[in-house]
Amino acid sequence: MELTWIKYFVELAHEGHMTRTAEKLGVSQPNLSMVIKRLEQELGVPLFDRVGRRITLSDYGKAFLPYATKTLSAIESGKRAVLEVKGIYDRNITLATTGTTFLFGLLKDFIKQYPDVRVRQFIVSPEEASSMLKMGKADFAITSPPLSDEELCTTLIYEDKILLATSRDHHLSREESIDLRDLKDEPFIDLVENYTFRKLTDEMCQLAGFTPNIVFEGEIVLMAELVEEGLGVALIPESIMRLYPDFPVKVIPIRYPEYTRKVGLSWYKHSHMGKYKEAFREF
Predict the structure, then answer these.
(1) Is the pTM of this model over 0.85?
(2) Model pLDDT, residue 79
(3) Which residue ranges form the domains of the chain, and what is each CATH number?
(4) 38 touches 11 (CB < 8 A)
């Protein structure tokens, strides 16, 4: 059994599609199929159930996957340990995150204190972040909501209040607090759907009994400009105001429903950490 076979198996298990997996690995589909077939022959069992183009793990595959994942992670940890002896690896920290707004203060202070460390960030879904940690493709994940997985260690960094943003001359701008149920007829400026924060704000509106009338979906800075012009209201995390202290909008606390965004730091419990990664974890 070759290490490449295990790598191909794990990627196919996560992707669930032969063509996409082959493209991701940079190999031909026939080559990928041949490797999986050899692995199944060596184990003597089918690892996948094939229904049309969709591929799902068989019961045998589900049993094999956690051990295959740990094998790849152990190899990555071994490589890191060797590179750390050479003084290379530990100066590189890879982050898998579900957003950017909760990173600024943390990264700014860390990079100032450790200027020789190189930090790379990948914006991914919570599921992808978990997978990257287990496969050794990321050192840490900073996510909202925090990851919950028995193979990961997770600590809560902070909780972020959700606020209403309006233009300074909006008819609600002088309110001390807002009941979200009173906004069912307001036009909303919002993040695009693939953001986890967007899922949270959609959930808030549903709890308040309405589906928001979204007139624009985009990035946070452009959202602020449109809110400033009075083209709609927006739900934003409190940390935005720390990140952009001159944000040109009026922010109002929401009394119902009162929501917070939890942000967590996670790492693979079996990963090897040098002094800089330990420093980042404790920062």
Answers:
(1) no
(2) 79
(3) 3-73 (1.10.10.10), 80-157+263-282 (3.40.190.10), 160-259 (3.40.190.10)
(4) no
